[in-house]
Amino acid sequence: MLKRVTHSFFILCLMISASACARGLPELTDLIQKNSPAVVKINTVERTRATSALPPQYQQQIPDIFRHLLEPRGREQRPAASMGSGFIISSDGYVVTNNHVVDGADEVVVTLTDRREYDARVIGTDARSDLALLKIEGDDLPTVSWGDSEALQVGEWVVAIGSPFGLDYSASAGIVSAMGRSIPNESRENYVPFIQTDVAINPGNSGGPLFNLNGEVVGINSQIYTRSGGSIGLSFAIPARLAQDVVAQLRDKGRVDRGWLGVGIQDVDRNMAQAMGLSRPAGALVAQVESGAPAAEAGILAGDIITRFDGERIMESGDLPHAVGQTRPGAEVPVDLMRKGKSVRVQVTVGALPGEDGPNQQAAVNPSNDIGGRLGLEVEEIPEGLKQRLGVDSGVIVKQVVPGKPGARAGLRNGDIIAQLGFEEVTDLQDYFSVVKQLPANELLPIRFFRGGQPTFRTIQIDE
């Protein structure tokens, strides 16, 4: 009898535990059904991407400037297609996605869950945040609502909807693993405090929404860490707070203005913290101050440790670009420092990040128009102050890049400084127009430019 009672009690305990576990799991059906109609699939076509005759294992080892010498003439030209996800934020057809989903695309097609398809215009893109704003022509389209990404907590449930590997409108769920992750982009810039999750995100999910349990968009899925090409439980989303600001600027003016301080920084280790009078490692150690930069004008010195920027605590060096980048140029903000073991506060008038003062690289432009000449680039002389800031003494600055044209396919962005075209130096506007006029068509040619003060060689080809 005792054995039977004990067994029954054990079964009852299991049932209670299972019930408790079930109550702890979120019910996602309504959330997914309600929001899926506003999640879109994005297909893009780049018509003139050249195929390479080099084996893939060698392609990354050979600089662009020399790679074409090892490839046969008359290489096949064929369209390159890619896909991603996005979501509609207004009933009249504004769509948010990732910059890398539409970068270089000649055609962008948006497909809804009910299989309606729309040709999309690129209103603007921002490579630094990896965001893009598209426009489709429609009325009474389904939409999603923005949520407060600042209210997210580690351990909170989140849901992604997108088209991984082309599997349309797939949903996956997980938890927030960490907040404020610093992941520099390929240009070593770091302006996005990513949300890290363990939600299953795969190629094709890029640009899709990340929802909280209220059905609000709190992030835009952007990156994964993977060894296999698929999800291993490390995915990263752009916070909604940052995305809303970027999208609003792209919609209003086709570009994004960011704050600039003009310092080189590094992390604070234990020994440095002790030497500087900090109880523990924290803040951003100023390793270099650019001459004439806002930091220099405010009296910030190399060796200072920035602990707060405009009231926001700086725990790691990567926190500082996040805070400064989201500050409007011209704003005067307090900056708290540790200097020689003492607390110091200075007032800084934030500058404009170089390259952020012109129209966005993919502002709404019809690629068929003869804008930007043979290269599809609008350029102008470099202001003297900007020359000093970037450490260059000649060249022309890119103010606009026309989607689908040679400059866009070469990866140029607004703010880049062109110093060489073909094998000719470009010192000013007159040089630029003279050289462009003489460039041969249908050949890969070297182009040298500066981005953020760093020289880069790539190739460019004019198709005529």
Automatic annotation (TrEMBL):
<keyword id="KW-0732">Signal</keyword>
<comment type="similarity">
    <text>Belongs to the peptidase S1C family.</text>
</comment>
<dbReference type="InterPro" id="IPR001478">
    <property type="entry name" value="PDZ"/>
</dbReference>
<dbReference type="Pfam" id="PF13180">
    <property type="entry name" value="PDZ_2"/>
</dbReference>
<keyword id="KW-0720">Serine protease</keyword>
<keyword id="KW-0346">Stress response</keyword>
<keyword id="KW-0378">Hydrolase</keyword>
<keyword id="KW-0645">Protease</keyword>
<feature type="domain" description="PDZ">
    <location>
        <begin position="245"/>
        <end position="317"/>
    </location>
</feature>
<dbReference type="InterPro" id="IPR001940">
    <property type="entry name" value="Peptidase_S1C"/>
</dbReference>
<keyword id="KW-0574">Periplasm</keyword>
<dbReference type="Pfam" id="PF17820">
    <property type="entry name" value="PDZ_6"/>
</dbReference>
<feature type="domain" description="PDZ">
    <location>
        <begin position="364"/>
        <end position="429"/>
    </location>
</feature>
<comment type="function">
    <text>Might be efficient in the degradation of transiently denatured and unfolded proteins which accumulate in the periplasm following stress conditions.</text>
</comment>
<dbReference type="InterPro" id="IPR009003">
    <property type="entry name" value="Peptidase_S1_PA"/>
</dbReference>
<dbReference type="InterPro" id="IPR041489">
    <property type="entry name" value="PDZ_6"/>
</dbReference>
<dbReference type="InterPro" id="IPR011782">
    <property type="entry name" value="Pept_S1C_Do"/>
</dbReference>
<feature type="signal peptide">
    <location>
        <begin position="1"/>
        <end position="22"/>
    </location>
</feature>
<dbReference type="Pfam" id="PF13365">
    <property type="entry name" value="Trypsin_2"/>
</dbReference>
<protein>
    <recommendedName>
        <fullName>Probable periplasmic serine endoprotease DegP-like</fullName>
        <ecNumber>3.4.21.107</ecNumber>
    </recommendedName>
</protein>
<keyword id="KW-0677">Repeat</keyword>
<dbReference type="InterPro" id="IPR036034">
    <property type="entry name" value="PDZ_sf"/>
</dbReference>
